[in-house]
Amino acid sequence: MTATAPAAPAKVYFTNLRTHARESQLDKLKRLIRRAGIEQIDFENKFVAIKIHFGELGNLSFLRPNYARAVADVVKELGGKPFLTDCNTL
Hints:
The protein is an alpha+beta fold. It has a domain at 25-86. The protein is 27% helix and 13% strand. Strands 1-2 form a two-stranded parallel ribbon. Strand 1 (47-52), helix 2 (65-77) and strand 2 form a beta-alpha-beta unit. Helix 1 (25-35) packs across helix 2. The longest helix is centred in the C-terminal third of the chain and has 13 residues, at 65-77. The protein is globular, with a radius of gyration of 16 Å. The termini are far apart.
């Protein structure tokens, strides 16, 4: 049995989602994912799954469509071919 080195602590990114006339929530989301390093990933001509949960009747824990769109827009800007895939609890 070999010992493995402990994993490096994960970086956590945070942004205040309060909006101002100068910058919308979607603009903040795009800036956040860029700061997290999305531009270091090679998406050129590759299909990119955006895993979401479309929600269920009466359930509020789902990704808002406009947030998925913002991520998809950044992936497209980087040459990727984004598509949505669901992960429901049924």
